[in-house]
Every structure is written in C-alpha cells, then in structure tokens.
Amino acid sequence: MNSPHVPQTARIVERIQESDDIFTLRLRFSDAAVQDGYRFAPGQFNMVYLPGAGEVPISLSSDPEEREDFAHTIRAVGRVTRGLAALKPGDEIGMRGPYGRGWPLDEAEGKDVFIITGGLGCAPVVAVIHYVLKRRERFKRLVILQGVKHSHDLIWRASYERWAQATDTQVLIAANSTEALWPWHVGSPIDLVSQAEFDPANAVTMICGPEGMMVAAAKALKARGLNEADIHVSLERNMQCALGLCGHCQLGGHFVCKDGPVFSYPEVKVLLERGGL
Amino acid sequence: MPASRFLPHSALQSLLDALTARGYAVIAPQARDGCIVYTETRHADELPWGIRLEQDPGSSRTIKGTHRQAFAWANGPQALKPLVFAPSEPLWRISRQADGYAVKAAETPQRPLAVIGVRACDLAALAIQDRHFLHGPYPDPRYGARREGMLLVAVNCTHPASTCFCASTGDGPEAKTDFDLALTELDDGFVIEAGSAEGEQILAALPLQDARAAQVEAAAAGIRHAAESQTRAIPGRNLRDALMARLEHPRWQEVAQRCLACGNCTMVCPTCFCHAETEQPELDGSGSLHSREWDSCFGERHGYIHGKQLRPEISQRYRQWLTHKLASWHDQFGRSGCVGCGRCIAWCPVGIDITEEAAALLK
After folding, report:
1. Which of A266, B43, B118, B296 sits CB 3.0–4.6 Å from B263 for a disulfide?
2. How far is B52 from B161, CA to CA, in rounded Å?
C-alpha cells in the first residue's frame, strides 16, 4: 500500500543527462501494484529519497498518462541531488507522493495557455506542455516563454525547436548571457511578454521560476490586460514532510506543500511582492 | 451540575493508584534542577509539595514556599507537547538488500498516559496541536496514537507567574472543557469534578468527601484571583491585520538587536509544531534511520532552499515567528497561536517579552 508517511522503493529505468548538471530519472515503483495505482497531476511533486542522505521535493516532469513509469528532472545542486546524479539505471531509491495541488488544467480548457518559466522552472511545466500538445484540440493557442541565465542552461533545446513548429504554438526564449550563434533573445524573459500572441480575455498563464521573476512576469501580464486570477504560479520552499505538518514551507498562512505548490496569483501576491517571508 | 466533591491531600495517592489500575502510566509534575518537569510518577509525595516558582523575563526558579500545596506554581518549560509530539522519534528504517532496499515503518507508540496537573493554557494548546496533527489531509499516526489514549487531569491555575497572560488570550486560568478530571487546590486538598464519563468512573473509585460551600467558594476565588493578578496582556485576540500591515515596522530591527535566534521560545511554546527530518546512515552502509525532531524557525536551516536562505536576517526570523503565531495562525487554525502561558518570556535568555513586542508593533 502506498502510504503518504513512508517511502516506497522505486527503480531507475532510464537516466538522461540533459545538461552539465541537469538530469532526468525515469522511475518505476518496485511494487507493481503501487505503480499500477499511482496517479499524479502536472505540477504535483514527490519526495525523492536517497537512502542515507535524505529526501528532496521534486516535481514530476513526465506525462501523467504514461502509466508504465514516471520521471523527475533534477539539477544537481545540493547534497541529496548530487548523490542522485551519481545513480545508474537499475539502482533503487525511495519515493513518497504525489503531493500538493497541481496546475489548473481543467480551468485552462478552451483557452489560450501561456507558460512562462525561468531557469529549471521548465521542469514543473514541461509536463503541462506535453499534456497540452497531446490534447491539442482541448486548448487554443499555446505560448511557451522560457528564460535562462546562460544559454547553456537551456535544456530540451530540440524540443523547443520542435514545439515552435507546431500549429497555434509560439516559443519565446531568452538568455541573459549567451554563447555565439544564439538564435533567440538576449536579456530578461520579461522583455518578451509583450511579443506573446494570446487573448488576455481568454487565457490561463502558468509561471514557474525565481520569485522575483514571477512577480515581474505577473506585472507584465497585467499590463497586457490579463486578469490576475488567470495567473498561476508554482512556489518553492523548504519541504521536509510534504504533509503540511513540519512547518518549513510556510508562506504567510499557506503550507506550500499541501495548499500549493501551485497557487493562483491573488492568493500569494501580497506575500510574494513583499519578499523575505 | 453534580454536587462538587473534595479530595483531601492525604488521599491524592488514591488518584494515582486508580489511574495506574486502569492501565495508565501516570505523568505528574515534579521539582527537579530548579524546574517543574512532567515525568512518570508513582507516589503522590514525589509532587512538588511546598514549591513555588518565580518566573520573570529571562528567569525561572523554583523556591521553597511556606505553603503546603503541590500545584502552587504556574508552569514548567514543557507539559503536554513532548508527550504527544515527541521531541525526537524515528519514522522509518531503510536497509540495504541484495538488489535494492527494504523500508520498515517505525512502530507506533502504544502506551496510554494519564497526565496530572494540566493547565488551562496547555489544554488550549493541545486543542490547537490536535487540529494541526490530526485534522489536516494527512493525520499524523504517531501523534494520534499518543493522543487517543491520553487521560487529562487538569489542575486549575491559582498561582500565575508574572509572565502569565492567559486571561487576556481567553485560555485560562480555569480549565473549562476537554479534560477528564479538573481539580482546584486548596490548602488541605482539591475540589474535584469530572469532565468525561471516564473521569466519572475514576471519581467513583476515590475516597471523596462532599465539598462544603466554603471550599467551593475558596476554589472559585483562587481562580478569580489568578486571573485578576495577571499583569501582562496580549493587546488583542486577533492581531492578524494589524501585524501584516506592519511588516516593515522598525521594531523588527530593534528586537533583532536583542534576539539571539536561539530558538528557546519555539522549544517551550506549547503550540509550535515545526520539526525537521533527519537521516542517520549506518557507518557500514547497511541502512539508514529516518527520524524527525523539533525544529525552530529561528535556525539557519529552517528557510534553507538549495543553496539559499530565505530568511537570512534575525529580524526576518523573529518576524516570521511572531507573525505566524499572532497573525497567519488565524488563517490556518481560526485563532491566535498564543495561549498566554508566558513560557517564551521566561525561557528567553535575554527576556524578550511577546506582549511587549506586540504592543510596540501596534504603535
């Protein structure tokens, strides 16, 4: 039985190096019944457990309807994620989840979907991109705006180029600093909000990235006439239990792990704009 | 309302015996190392007879009094919280197998406790912790197992400390609900009442006397006096909007000059629930123990997120603590997180006073 309190073991079925320090693990629960019963929504996360090191909250990056396995895209930045980076296919780790509130995909049906991400922010929303592209008829335009610090941080470059060719789909990419022959914008992703082709009266925006960038993106979207309630953000906080109990992920009165990590912008606007909370 | 009854001091042992006979481990206050601690107790003479407790900002000392009561003090650093929410406990153990790992959940605690000497402030705090640990989407099985079997013998507070302000939060000094038995101490015994069916059954096993009208009145007067003699007060039961409108108040910087960020206030607070999860690998790599332990929002790790500290300044951490306790707590639990026990004042090494800080912030 999959308990929210105790990890299940899961085996790595594939490991993909996405960039120097970003990698994807495709995983399958070792207990076939747990894998069969496992369901998640884009925007939800698992507690990924490296035995002997600890757990980290990582959002799911695979399509929820791929039921054979699931995937996490991870940047090796801390003790646990560096340890996870060293694992190979066949290795087992622990896994608890899924947790939290995902993206409002039902609400987005019949509307333009505008996805804005910064840095590795693309991982929580790449599941949404796949979701929308596979169910193209349910949504109107798809706009993908991705910002990275340096051009070499852009993962899934071939995917962006492919997505840009899809109908009713626009891809906008920005890097603050770049290597030679960078074909996209040099500067802040916020600069590109004005170029996005979408109907502000009938759109849902999903933003993921550093908090300052999300606040700036929300301001730029409002300037385009988008209603604040149609802006959704995915927040990151220290999460240790993922059950709404340990207290680390609090932002004002919210427990980000259970009330989020996806929030509609009005729910968290005042707290995010303030900063340092 | 049944007629009040009276348990003479000389018969207090019969209460401990009745609880033990019903299968409870009895937890009661004792005076140790200058403190009142709640610990397993078999004999009524182990209670803090004749002890008083002087508490002031940054100070708490037991002293020998001239009275003959066992509960003539306000509260020790801990009471119910560590009995339901363990300061440290294992969650699971993972062990290496030939082809991976096996995970085994730690056993759920099973020993029922009866706690004698529960204060009204601690009952109010317990109700909040119940809501946090048991009434969310993921009820905590460890807290639940301890809480489910717990029997509560309240003792109304008749000797508040200078640091107490439960009258202003509305949580004391009288225990009004959620107890099995409630006692009010006089010089020669206790006016006693039951608050549950099990409490009634226990009363039936005790050598009680009918309480005289003068005893009932003396007990009520003791509680009234305990409320009236409190000198501190929290300036309002709902400071949510007032504090959230003052997130840039200069007082946050001022208090940060005094605050050591030691976290004592959060350790002694009966409603603080933050805990950290820790991993202790075996030296030989054969497995690992995953545990949780109390944590504090004053610590450097609390707001840590992949290489970044969300609240690097002490002013931000104090603000987080106070605005959580007195403001965003209302969003989470429908009331303030402060029950007026005053522990954070007494146990702060530099004597920072939550009532004084709240008042200064409102100016």
Report:
1. B296
2. 10
CB contact residues (below 8 A), chain B span 53-112, against chain A:
91-92, 94, 96, 99-103, 105
Using the 8-state DSSP alphabet, how is residue B353 labeled?
-
pLDDT of residue A197: 96
A150 beta partners: A177
Check if the beta carbon of residue A33 is closer than 8 Å to that of residue A47.
no
What's the confidence (pLDDT) of residue B3?
A: 66
Question: pTM for this one?
Answer: 0.94
pLDDT tens, position by position, A227-266: 999 999 999 999 999 999 999 999 999 999 999 999 999 9
CA–CA separation, A249 and A240 (whole Å)? 8
Phi, psi of A126 (to 5 degrees): -65, -30
| Residues 6+ away with beta carbon under 8 Å from B281 | A51, A52, A53, B287, B288
In this predicted model, what pLDDT tens digit does every residue of B322-362 receive, in sequence order? Answer: 999 999 999 999 999 999 999 999 999 999 999 999 999 99
**pLDDT reported for residue A126:** 84
Name the closest residue on chain B to residue A53, using Cα atoms: B279
Whole-angstrom distance, CA of residue B36 vs CA of residue A195: 68
CA distance A189 to A155: 16
User: Rounded to whole angstroms, how far apart are CA atoms B182 and B196?
Assistant: 10
DSSP letter, residue A91: -
Closest CA to A141 of A108, A107, A111: A111
Q: How far is B169 from chain A (nearest CA, A)?
A: 20
pLDDT at B1: 46
At residue A99's C-alpha, the angle toward residues B333 and B330, to 5°, is: 10
Which has the higher per-residue pLDDT, A22 or A267? A267
Residue B290, pLDDT above cutoff 80: yes
Distance, CA of A167 to CA of A94 (rounded, Å):
40
CB of A49 closer than 8 Å to CB of A7:
yes
Closest CA to B24 of B150, B135, B117: B150
Sorted by where each begins, the domain ranges of chain B are 5-228, 240-362
Residue B64 is predicted with a pLDDT of 92
Q: Please compute the mean of the pLDDT values over residues A127-139 and round it to a whole number.
A: 91
Residue B154: closest CA among B128, B190, B189, B186: B190
Q: For chain A, which domains are there?
A: 8-99 (2.40.30.10), 105-274 (3.40.50.80)
Q: Which two tokens stand for residue B150?
A: 């717990």
> Are A9 and B101 contacting, i.e. CB atoms less than 8 angstroms apart?
yes
Alpha-carbon distance B165 to nearest alpha carbon in chain A (angstroms): 25
Distance from CA of A92 to the nearest CA of B (A): 5
